[in-house]
Amino acid sequence: MAKDPSKTEKATPRRRQKAREEGQVLKSQDVPIAISLLVVSLMLIFYLPFAFGKLRELLYYVLSQSAYLDLKPLLITSVYVFAFLILPVFLLLLTIGIFGNVIQFGFIFTFKPLIPKLSNVNPITGIQRIFSLKTLFETVKSSLKLAVAVAVGYFAVVHILSGFNSLSFIPLGEQIEFLAKASVLLFFTFGLLSVPIAGLDFLYRRWEYEENLKMSKQEVKEERKQQEGHPLIKSAIRRRQREIAMKRMMAEVPKADVVITNPTHYAVALKYERGKMHAPKVVAKGVDKVALKIKEIAFENDVPVEENPELARTLYESCEVGDYIPEEFYRVVAKILARIYRQKGKMP
């Protein structure tokens, strides 16, 4: 449950990622337990005949070698056989344990949950945990587990005892096999009944996890500011970007072939390289103070300035820096450039 009544907003992706990095993930311990009981009991149904066969061979070997009173090889063989039989079950349990957690929250590796927290030793916090909804849920869940275990155990014992008298007339090995199969059946029943309990626990853990991740409106605003940047910082960055773009644009003016202007308001610098460009390109443009600065740089670098108010205004409105001029202006711009080239003696 959300610890603060003001935390009414769902967690943002950044909040979820941060919680995951700190080891706070959606996890139910009952899910891997239920899967383990089901899978291991099913595996033992097919594995027990093989295991009992190996144990019979071990028993025959021990009995055949007992007359020699050499315990070392008997002990080594026994350890090897038991390890060989237990290892598959151990590996299966390990795999199921990993799988049962991975399907809930994926792969994660962090030591942060191991770091001690002062809140864990706070007596007030401890009292709050004792009387919390989580404690009530755990109590109900444990009681339900106990009730299921008692009921299943009772019926299993009754079933075993009903055939106990007949067991006395069969060999010891078969008695052990019967008890083993009854135990596996008992585990499988526990596994089946653990599935709904695990499902309820997972649903509660998911609800609790979402509640704990909730944020206040102020926290959401602060996170958005951190991600987007403070308005003053963003304004400074944009201003700096504009300054850099302006300097870069002004550096292109001396390379232009002509600057088209009206007397005071608009200025558009054009560049054309025969054989490299299919049309003249706008390398700089501006209005008012920027236009005056473009003309000033043009005069300083002997770049021709052509007054043509209508063309200057139209090019300014229809083209961005770096664009080639539209086709409808080819003729008028070509005449201007031709005249400038003749004046400079650059005409072919």
List keywords for this structure.
about 350 residues, mainly alpha, name from scop, 2 domains, four-stranded mixed β-sheet, 12 helices, about 5% strand, elongated
Please give a structural write-up.
The protein is mainly alpha-helical and 348 residues long. It has 2 domains: 214 residues, no CATH class; 105 residues, 3-Layer(aba) Sandwich (name from scop). The chain has a 4-stranded mixed β-sheet, with helices on both faces. Strand 1 and strand 2 form a beta hairpin. Helix 2 packs antiparallel against helix 3, helix 2 runs antiparallel to helix 7 and helix 5 packs antiparallel against helix 7. The longest helix is centred in the middle third of the chain and has 42 residues. The radius of gyration is 42 Å and the shape is elongated.
Secondary-structure blueprint of this entry?
Elements: H1 13-21, H2 30-65, H3 71-105, H4 123-130, H5 133-162, H6 164-167, H7 172-213, H8 217-228, H9 231-252, E1 258-261, E2 266-271, E3 281-287, H10 289-300, E4 305-307, H11 309-318, H12 330-344
Parallel strand pairs: 1-4
Antiparallel strand pairs: 1-2, 2-3
Helix pairs in contact: 2-3, 2-7, 5-7
